[in-house]
Write a structure and sequence with these properties.
single chain, Rossmann fold
Length: 162
């Protein structure tokens, strides 16, 4: 695990910023905690329940298409994707993890919208738990922080006050 992660920029979300959170149902115990942490942090950043829409999809592989549809609506300032892929005994992990990451990034670049990669890709269930509120922090909270910071940065680039 990298120990050089930046400290989150504590930006308050604009009152008109809407955020879509797309969360996988696969590995539900972990992803549900990621979702809870993400929603908690978004609230701390000033988002109320009217600004955040949560959508559930079957697994991590489905996150990119849901993110693309959310982005295409034009209603959201950011899309946060949450999931968990744990390595198994087959090459399935590499396909799911790699294509999920690529798909999420493709949506972000194509749409010019922050699409946050809050997907854990771990070797073990314990590593996932450690990153969902355990010994290595909370990836759901970090995803919310990244969304807030990117909303502010892109608004600044586009000449809008946040």
């Amino acid at each position: 695990m990298s120990t050089n992660a930046p400290v989150a920029s504590q930006k308050k979300l604009p009152a008109n910023a809407r955020i879509a959170v797309v969360a996988a149902r696969f590995n539900a115990q972990i992803v549900d905690e990621l979702l809870a942490g993400c929603l908690r942090r978004l609230a701390e950043l000033g988002a109320d329940e009217r600004q955040v829409e949560v959508y559930r999809v079957p697994g991590a592989f489905e996150l990119p298409v849901a993110a693309k549809v959310a982005a295409k609506t034009g209603r959201f300032a950011a899309v946060v994707c949450l999931g968990c892929v744990v390595r198994g005994d087959t090459p399935h992990f590499e396909f799911v993890a790699g294509e999920t990451a690529r798909g999420i990034q493709d949506v972000a670049v194509a749409e010019g919208l922050p699409v946050i990669f809050g997907v854990l890709t771990t070797n073990t269930d314990q590593q996932a738990r450690d990153r969902a509120g355990g010994a290595h922090g909370h990836a759901g909270e970090s995803a919310a922080d990244a969304a807030g910071e990117m909303i502010a940065v892109l608004a600044e680039m586009r000449g809008r006050n946040v």
